[in-house]
């Protein structure tokens, strides 16, 4: 059983976060209402959406599976990309490993394991690559923006050529909406951190 299947199998019973996007339109002024005392003309205005605000889009694949396309943006906005996630994938996996602490500068990183074909870079071209070697002795390739050093995704060779680890904290629509599905590398977790979800010492067992 692969790493993706192991995590999906352990998390399949988790509830899927529901996402809804609404745009409110102000009610037009009543044309029969009395004008202001000073006879000044009033106008109804509508809020203008932020032009660069990414939006999620749900689509149905040929197999009938529903996926939602999320937009990712690096800090300097040089790189943009989309990530297609199923409901079961629309969760954060917290990684507490020491490498994530050093590379991310925090207590953990927010991730999801997905097929490589689910990520499509739409702006900025191919990112730069940094390689280190993990616990398995195999290479871990980190793809990042050469301008602001934001890590778009990682590829662990031990997972095979078609699986990557996407940074879900970079998906604006999912950053706050996704629930936490699991925590991995709990053995390196900070002593003061609370347990948020099912936690594995390293990765889920076979």
Automatic annotation (TrEMBL):
<feature type="compositionally biased region" description="Polar residues">
    <location>
        <begin position="11"/>
        <end position="23"/>
    </location>
</feature>
<keyword id="KW-0456">Lyase</keyword>
<keyword id="KW-0479">Metal-binding</keyword>
<feature type="region of interest" description="Disordered">
    <location>
        <begin position="1"/>
        <end position="63"/>
    </location>
</feature>
<feature type="domain" description="CENP-V/GFA">
    <location>
        <begin position="70"/>
        <end position="193"/>
    </location>
</feature>
<protein>
    <recommendedName>
        <fullName>CENP-V/GFA domain-containing protein</fullName>
    </recommendedName>
</protein>
<dbReference type="InterPro" id="IPR011057">
    <property type="entry name" value="Mss4-like_sf"/>
</dbReference>
<keyword id="KW-0862">Zinc</keyword>
<dbReference type="GO" id="GO:0046872">
    <property type="term" value="F:metal ion binding"/>
</dbReference>
<dbReference type="InterPro" id="IPR006913">
    <property type="entry name" value="CENP-V/GFA"/>
</dbReference>
<dbReference type="GO" id="GO:0016846">
    <property type="term" value="F:carbon-sulfur lyase activity"/>
</dbReference>
<dbReference type="Pfam" id="PF04828">
    <property type="entry name" value="GFA"/>
</dbReference>
<comment type="similarity">
    <text>Belongs to the Gfa family.</text>
</comment>
<feature type="compositionally biased region" description="Low complexity">
    <location>
        <begin position="24"/>
        <end position="42"/>
    </location>
</feature>
């Amino acid at each position: 059983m692969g790493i993706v299947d192991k995590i999906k199998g352990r998390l399949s019973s988790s509830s899927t976060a529901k996402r809804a996007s609404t745009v409110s339109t102000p009610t037009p002024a009543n044309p029969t209402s009395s004008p202001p005392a000073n006879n000044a003309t009033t106008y109804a205005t509508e809020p203008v959406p932020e032009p660069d605000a990414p939006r999620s889009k749900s689509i149905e694949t040929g197999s009938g599976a529903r996926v939602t396309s999320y937009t990712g943006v690096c800090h300097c906005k040089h790189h943009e990309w989309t990530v297609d996630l199923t409901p079961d994938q629309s969760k954060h996996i917290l990684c507490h490993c020491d490498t994530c602490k050093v590379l991310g500068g925090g207590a953990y990183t927010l991730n999801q394991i997905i097929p490589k074909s689910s990520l499509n870079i739409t702006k900025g071209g191919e990112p730069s690559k940094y390689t280190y070697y993990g616990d398995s002795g195999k290479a871990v390739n980190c793809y990042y923006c050469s301008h602001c050093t934001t890590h778009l995704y990682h590829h662990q060779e031990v997972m095979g050529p078609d699986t990557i680890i996407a940074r879900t904290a970079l998906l604006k629509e999912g950053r706050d909406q996704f629930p936490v599905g699991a925590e991995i590398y709990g053995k390196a977790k900070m002593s003061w951190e609370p347990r948020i979800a099912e936690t594995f010492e390293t990765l889920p067992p076979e």
